[in-house]
Amino acid sequence: MWLDEADGFAEIFKGYLPYYLLVALPIFIIMSPVNPVAASHEFSVYRMQQYDLHTVPHGCRSASFNLEGRSLTSWSTSRHCVVARIQDITIEQFLEIRSKAGALLLVLPQNSTLLTPEEKEHIQLLEMAMTQQELNAPVYFAKWTPEFEDILRDLQHSFITDDRSGTALEAMMNTVSSNGYQIVVSASAPQKLDSKPVTLHGKLVGRSGSGQTIVIVAHYDSSGLVPELSLGADSNASGAVAVLELARVFSRLYGAAATRAAPDLLFVLTSAGHHLNYFAAKKWLEEQLDSTDASLLQDVSFVMCLDSLASSPSMTMHVSKPPKPEGAAHSFKSRLGVPINHKKINLADELLAWQHERFSIRRMTAFTLSSLQSHKSPGRSTVLDVWSEQSARLAADNIAAIARALASHIYNLTDEINHEDRQMYDEVLSVDEASVKHWFNYLSSQPRAAQIITTTAPNAGVTGALERALSRYMDVTVSVHAVDKREPEYTLYSPTSAVLYVYSVKPAVFDLILTLAIVAYLTVVYFAIQVFPRFYDEYAKIFTGKAKVQ
């Protein structure tokens, strides 16, 4: 009985088994434990800065790519996109990637406040190195996510190179068994943006007939390696907040004739700041000084520029020319009690060091107050410049010190002033810490790169919010500056962000080996089917003593 059933099983092998295999193999492949959702990911990424300054290109010049992802230790050709944490890549590695790799994708820290001082300094120096020259390869940045962490871990443990493998066989097996990633960014080609920087200014009028004006200036935009991630809490949200708070404080004093001081106070907020050579400040000065009616800046006592006030409790007065001992600027400096850093203007440099140099060039007494001791500080242009409780408190303390020193100067307060008058001024000059923190948090919670704020309407976004805030204390004039399209001083480019797709794939060698394995498997099955009837005949002879009759 059982031999008859075996005969039927043998007949299947003779005629129909190959057809069953053709059906069964795809079914087995489809039923294999592969999750299609886990095989692809979609992320928002942010492109590196791209702009031209005096026709000199800066930043990344490409936007799209479709390349195989590799780690810092396994990439080798221009067909690879290097994926790494920003704190892991060295300047030497970046220089090699810039000249040889196809693209670079850097993942930002999960929490920048947890970085060590050494890690922060390393990231800031890397950012400075990346902005030195233009890059032809696309460079993108991504915020940390658990999915990105898994991808980074896979890339670090995959594609183990020969020097990390014990034997050649181990290296080959690691290459075949590893999981790879195809990284794709489909972005439009870089296009020039129509940039129109805006300057806001308003005046508190002093006692009639005095004629002198004190100018208080800050640029409210931020500069950084990544426009969409340039929050610029210290540089220069703190300076813009200082202008708003000083306007609020002195508007209370100037609101009554009895407490109004002699000089006019002119408050100015500019855009297109540090990395664009203070273009808006330059254009605004040209409009005010080269026009037939130049009364706004007719008799300037001094210009006080505010920049980066939230990184240290101590401030430095940066000047292009030391103030004269009998001058107003020296009087203010003595009352504030800050050291002086003297640096001459070098017009041969591509960029001016501080904003006050724009005013010094026009023969005005000007200086910059800053918590930074040097204009070369990497903290002026970094993605790590974000809001914190400590920076908000430092900003409020420094603004209060500036307000007291300015009031002491314009009212000529001395140590001999009676206690009641001093207490009255201290109450009026008190800084509203809640207001400072609110505006500091608002400005540093959104990107303020020139690509973003100079391409929107003057009454929209950050510019519109600052105009409405300053309008509470004085009449505000909005000046929109145009960039000469024939000989532009600077040119901005888009896109600033894109969508990145990551597909989990096997390496090409895996497809080759898998094909060979399938061919070998089918060959073995084929010959097994062909030999099985003969084997069955021999098996039947042993158990029945005679050959099976066909």
UniProtKB/TrEMBL annotation:
Family: Belongs to the nicastrin family.
Origin organism lineage: Eukaryota, Metazoa, Ecdysozoa, Arthropoda, Hexapoda
Membrane topology type: Single-pass membrane protein
Pfam families in the cross-refs: Peptidase_M28
GO process annotations (BP): regulation of signal transduction
Designated name of the protein: BOS complex subunit NCLN
Bilayer-spanning residue ranges: 20-39, 508-529
UniProt domain Peptidase M28: residue ranges: 201-318
Any one cellular-component term (Gene Ontology): endoplasmic reticulum membrane
Compartments where found: Endoplasmic reticulum membrane
InterPro entries: Nicalin, Peptidase_M28
UniProt keyword list: Endoplasmic reticulum, Glycoprotein, Membrane, Signal, Transmembrane, Transmembrane helix
